[in-house]
Design brief:
Length: about 525
């Protein structure tokens, strides 16, 4: 519609310029004909230039409304200037003021139509105020008709807006159940995934299939089947949060978008939904988590479908590595990194142990603790890109060397992103050195914008680093490390994670010295 309006506006400009040129020719003996000719000539030149612009690109641009509004304002300025040169409000050219108003009503949004209509009325009143010897009654009637035209144009634009919204809803809604259709769900999910990517958040997609739906239709009729589908959607709506979305993507197949949810919580939600639906009709559900199972909707839907059919047939996913296999691989790679830094201490293993303890105290789902353990083991894997001369340097690092070290979290995330099945932990590793106040690296995230797993690993990493000797400093005591964590809570570290860590250290502190040393050694 906007492309068609674009073309109509160009041809309308040609017609207005042509009619005005005829008027000028017929009234050539009056004053300022050359000036008025130049004004309309500039209008003609502008229409020619606009006709050469890429219409599709402009119409789909974010500056579309700015362009159309500027076009209308330029036309108004030329019309007012020509009227002023032709005698002001008494000029027949004032009739041209109706054209931009009606043109705006064709496709402009309501706010733009009101703006163009209001400026047209004000422009004519300004001409009337500066015209000497004009008829007040004529000018009042003309301004009233111009106002009415603007009001009707605004009413039409409002109708267009309502119709557009209604068509948008109809084109994205399932007429039977009232939830989103496939197109609407895909648009919503793609937008949510893009938002989650920017904010380093997680999410999940559930694919749900109503079991034995064909038998319901065959035995009870299609009316009963339709009622069952409506009941499924109503049950899902009652059980889900407002930010979540439901889509009907097939005859008896639905998809659910869970926004900003941890994988463990997504699994728990699927179990809860299955229990609610099983009260009337069994349903099979497959779950895929972002970004662990994919970073776009197609990957997530494919993974969720595979799990749905696998659960229905009671078999594991084909080609999926077991958690033990992933953990063994991660441990071997982490050990290789640790050996480059210290032959005596397994730093990555210690960080993994502390991270799991913190997460357990924070109430993490047991299924997610294994994923966190892998992430913590691999949190320093990017240091394989840092030269030995920097990793083992006994003195302070230069600014250039420090920049190389700071890049290891991004390098680690890029390495892990290439490993199938570990997509979920990529943002955890990338942001494992972000500070709670936003002063960390690589992206300067702050507070809740940092994945909780990253905040947990940072506390665990800092404690283990402080309590073990490095090439550039001796080890600190457990008490000194604890005090440092507390001092930096709220700035470098998440206060909640620090509080949990202090509690874990306090539990160790209640033991005698020998038992405490053994407990610390078993963890570190």
């Amino acid at each position: 519609m906007r492309v068609a309006t674009f073309a109509a506006g160009i041809w309308l400009s040609y017609v207005v310029v042509g009619a005005s040129t005829l008027y000028i020719a017929l009234t050539w003996g009056r004053p300022h004909r050359l000036l008025i000719t130049l004004l309309y000539g500039s209008g003609l030149l502008g229409a020619v230039v606009i006709s050469r612009l890429p219409r599709e690109r402009i119409v789909r641009s974010r500056y579309r409304e700015v362009f159309f509004m500027a076009w209308s304002l330029l036309d108004l300025a030329l019309i007012v200037a020509a009227c002023a040169a032709d005698g002001g409000a008494r000029s027949p050219m004032a009739l041209v003021l109706f054209v931009p108003v009606v043109f705006a009503a064709m496709s402009y949004p309501l706010a733009s139509v009101v703006t163009v209509g209001g400026l047209s009325v004000l422009s004519y009143l300004a001409l009337a105020a500066t015209t000497e010897g004009g008829s007040t009654s004529y000018e009042a009637l003309f301004a009233s008709m111009l106002f009415c035209t603007g009001a009707m144009s605004a009413w039409q634009a409002r109708n267009h807006d309502h119709q557009h919204r209604a068509l948008m809803e109809v084109s994205r809604a399932d007429p039977l159940t009232g939830c989103l259709n496939r197109r609407g769900f895909e648009e919503r999910a793609i937008a949510e995934i893009a938002s989650a990517t920017r904010r380093a958040q997680q999410g999940a997609v559930l694919v749900l299939d109503v079991d034995h739906f064909k038998e319901v239709n065959d035995q009870l009729g299609h009316g009963a089947g339709d009622e069952l589908l409506r009941w499924v959607v109503a049950t899902l709506r009652e059980a889900l949060r407002p930010p979540d979305a439901i889509g009907r993507i097939g005859g008896d197949e639905f998809a659910v978008l869970l926004a900003d949810v941890e994988p463990g919580e997504a699994v728990a939600t699927s179990v809860r939904l299955a229990g609610l639906l099983n009260r009337r009709q069994p349903c099979s559900i497959g779950v895929a988590s972002f970004p662990m199972d994919g970073i776009d909707l197609e990957e997530l839907m494919r993974a969720a479908d595979a799990r749905l059919y696998a659960s229905r047939e009671g078999r594991p996913e084909a080609g999926a590595a077991s958690p033990d296999e992933r953990l063994s691989w991660a441990a071997a790679l982490a050990r290789a990194v640790d050996l480059r830094m210290s032959a005596e201490h397994e730093h990555s293993k210690a960080v993994a142990e502390w991270s799991v303890r913190i997460a357990s105290a924070l109430g993490w789902h047991p299924e997610m603790l294994g994923t966190l353990r892998i992430a913590a083991m691999l949190h320093d894997v990017g240091k394989v890109t840092v030269p030995d001369r920097i990793l083992g340097k006994p003195g302070p690092l230069s600014d250039g060397e420090w920049e190389i070290v700071r890049g290891h979290s991004m390098a680690g995330a890029e390495l892990i992103a290439r490993v199938a099945g570990l997509g979920m932990i990529v943002p955890w590793i990338r942001h494992s050195h972000e500070s709670f106040d936003g002063s960390g690296y690589p992206d300067g995230l702050a507070g809740e914008a940092i994945p909780q797993a990253s905040r947990i690993m940072l506390v665990a990493d800092a404690f283990d680093a402080m309590t073990n000797a490095r090439s550039y400093r001796p080890a600190r005591s457990v008490e000194q490390a604890r005090d440092e964590l507390v001092a930096c809570a709220g700035s470098q570290f998440d206060p909640t994670c620090v509080e949990v860590m202090v509690g874990l250290l306090g539990d160790l502190g209640r033991s005698d010295a020998g038992a405490r040393a053994g407990a610390v050694e078993s963890i570190v």
